[in-house]
């Protein structure tokens, strides 16, 4: 279905397709035309996903949830087709600067990614958790950050709570080919999620008017009744839903890697990178164990009397990392970077987010602050990520905060180019944050912190294991139980974390490889730039320049920065979007 043309991208971009590019060649403002397309496509994408819009800082539909009706789906697919037809007319004409050629490829990847998800992942038909997730994520996006007065956010929550019943009814009609494992996720999420809709919402309604609190109570009752009924419906049908069936197959997975992620690797090459890294990480563990036998005891993270003390310590260590970045000339921390806070992960979300997660400023957010939800400090919490944080906060803090995700996204959102401003390539983002863990270790951040070094190496092993799981699940070479077992044997994590991770990657192929594959590409770029610059090379200069491109595929960075199309040549043929 997807033609594979062997021509190099550089030649392809200079090619003017008869009947399509001629009009563009006469357009003297190609950059503006492409940016206009990007604005309309981005605005439309957020208009059909109210929860995502709230997270992005667009507060135009905070009282609504997504419409999953067949009519809405047909309209969405038709709109993607219309955008595709328009993008065909925007194929870069001869002489277009590389920057704008890259922007075209970014928009093409975004458009084709949206189409591929609906055509091959088919979450509407296959994933029962998508619908209960729409309800919970819609509420969580309203309460996690005070973007408006409490009264306003409570009123918005009331609207979304009442909309939840309709979403769940649409699910029952849409789920024509449900995956049993995804249904199990939905059931487990609902079983542990009541507190989000009650305790968490009640906390922002303390100062609301009596009438608003009464309306909230009624809406909470309605939403929870609908969710519990949906859980009952899912549980009653689980045994009849087929297990597995979530693999997209090797051909489609390879197509996704190349066309959407713009990766210069096949699935076989990605797997090989993961396997080689896993062996290296095992060697690193052996070296570090011997190092600690003979090294002085070094720094030991203190014990904490309570959760508040742990969170305060966690947040205060940011200053230590920033000082290290400055003294070792590793990267420039811009003056506009806002505060970064550490917040305990709400119990209602702990079941589905055992490792916590980071919340940067929204792409259109006026508030520059960010925060990271860390797992419960309770020593009884045996989750892999919770145990890691109790032993050493610096690796996770550097990954999630500064110089990791929080700083990287903050810089990207200050990019004056609109397309670079809104781009959100996961390989760049996770690759940068993961690369930073070992890079900081090699530069001495954990020289006196053996627990920090141990944590970094363990996380390296964990991310390498993720690669094998992602490829195996997506291509159909690995079942979910096999993936969980592979995690347990190779990543050194507990069964609950392995189950949560493997299930998440089965639902969204291509995400688990982001960390190691992105890190590998950064290391390659560093070597290429150092060879080119010679004595003028500095690590800080390399990092600052790298972050200036925005959150984009590294294949485009190599082309735009070095004029080297070695990676992009492997991923961008044919030049026109696929026919929807």
Describe the structure.
- This protein has 27 helices and 3 strands.
- With 580 residues, the protein is mostly helical.
- It has 3 domains: 9-121 and 247-252, no CATH class; 126-240, no CATH class; 277-457, no CATH class.
- It has a 3-stranded mixed β-sheet with strand order 1-3-2.
- Mean pLDDT is 90; it is low at 1-28.
Keywords:
64% helix; globular; disordered N terminus; mainly alpha; three-stranded mixed sheet; 580 residues; 3 domains; single chain
* Helical stretch tally: 27
Shape: globular
Structural class: mainly alpha
Give the number of domains: 3
Total strands: the figure is 3
N-to-C span: 10 Å
Order of SSEs: HHHHHHHHHHHHHHHEHEEHHHHHHHHHHH
Mean pLDDT: 90
Low-confidence stretches: 1-28
């Amino acid at each position: 279905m997807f033609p594979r043309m062997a021509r190099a991208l550089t030649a392809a971009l200079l090619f003017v397709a008869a009947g399509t590019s001629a009009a563009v060649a006469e357009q003297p403002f190609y950059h503006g035309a492409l940016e206009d397309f990007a604005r309309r496509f981005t605005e439309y994408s957020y208009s059909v996903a109210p929860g995502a819009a709230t997270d992005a800082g667009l507060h135009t539909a905070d009282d609504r949830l997504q419409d999953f009706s067949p009519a809405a789906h047909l309209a969405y697919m038709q709109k993607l087709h219309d955008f595709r037809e328009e993008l065909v007319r925007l194929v870069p004409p001869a002489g277009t600067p590389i920057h704008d050629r890259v922007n075209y490829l970014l928009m093409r990847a975004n458009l084709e990614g949206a189409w591929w998800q609906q055509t091959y992942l088919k979450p509407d038909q296959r994933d029962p958790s998508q619908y209960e997730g729409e309800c919970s994520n819609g509420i969580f996006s309203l309460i996690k950050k005070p973007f408006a007065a409490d009264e306003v956010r409570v009123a918005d929550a009331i609207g979304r709570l009442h909309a939840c019943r309709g979403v769940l009814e649409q699910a029952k009609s849409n789920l024509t080919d449900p995956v049993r494992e995804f249904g199990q996720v939905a059931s487990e999420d609902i079983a542990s999620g009541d507190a989000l809709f009650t305790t968490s919402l009640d906390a922002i309604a303390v100062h609301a008017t009596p009438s608003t609190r009464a309306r909230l109570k009624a809406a909470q009752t309605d939403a929870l009744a609908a969710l519990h009924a949906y859980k009952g419906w899912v549980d009653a049908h689980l045994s009849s839903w087929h297990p597995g069936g979530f693999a997209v197959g090797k051909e489609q997975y390879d197509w996704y890697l190349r066309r959407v992620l713009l990766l210069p690797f096949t699935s076989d090459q990605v797997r090989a990178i993961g396997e080689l890294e896993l062996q290296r990480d095992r060697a690193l563990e052996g070296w570090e164990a011997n190092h600690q036998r003979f090294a002085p005891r070094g720094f030991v993270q203190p014990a904490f009397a309570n959760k508040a003390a742990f969170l305060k310590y966690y947040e205060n260590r940011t200053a230590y990392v920033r000082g290290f970045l400055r003294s070792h000339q590793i990267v420039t921390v811009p003056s506009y970077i806002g505060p970064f806070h550490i917040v305990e992960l709400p119990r209602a979300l702990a079941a589905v987010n055992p490792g916590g997660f980071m919340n940067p400023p929204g792409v259109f957010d006026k508030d520059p602050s960010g925060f990271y939800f860390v797992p419960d400090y309770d020593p009884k919490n045996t989750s892999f990520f919770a145990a890691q944080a109790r032993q050493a906060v610096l690796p996770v803090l550097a990954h999630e905060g500064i110089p990791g995700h929080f700083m990287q996204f903050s810089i990207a959102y200050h990019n004056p180019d609109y397309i670079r401003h809104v781009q959100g390539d996961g390989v760049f983002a996770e690759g940068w944050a993961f690369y930073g863990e070992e890079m900081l270790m090699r530069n001495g951040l954990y020289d006196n912190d053996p627990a920090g070094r141990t944590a970094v190496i363990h996380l390296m092993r964990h991310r390498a294991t993720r690669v094998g799981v992602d490829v195996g699940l997506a291509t159909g070479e690995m079942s979910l139980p096999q993936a969980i077992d592979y995690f347990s044997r190779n990543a050194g994590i507990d069964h609950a974390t392995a189950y949560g991770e493997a299930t998440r990657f089965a639902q969204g192929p291509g995400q688990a490889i982001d960390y190691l594959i992105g890190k590998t590409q950064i290391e390659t770029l560093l070597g290429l730039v150092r060879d080119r610059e010679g004595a003028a090379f500095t690590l800080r200069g390399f990092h600052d320049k790298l972050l200036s491109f925005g959150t984009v595929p590294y294949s485009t960075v190599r082309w735009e920065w070095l004029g080297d199309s070695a990676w992009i040549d492997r991923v961008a043929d044919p030049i026109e979007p696929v026919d929807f």
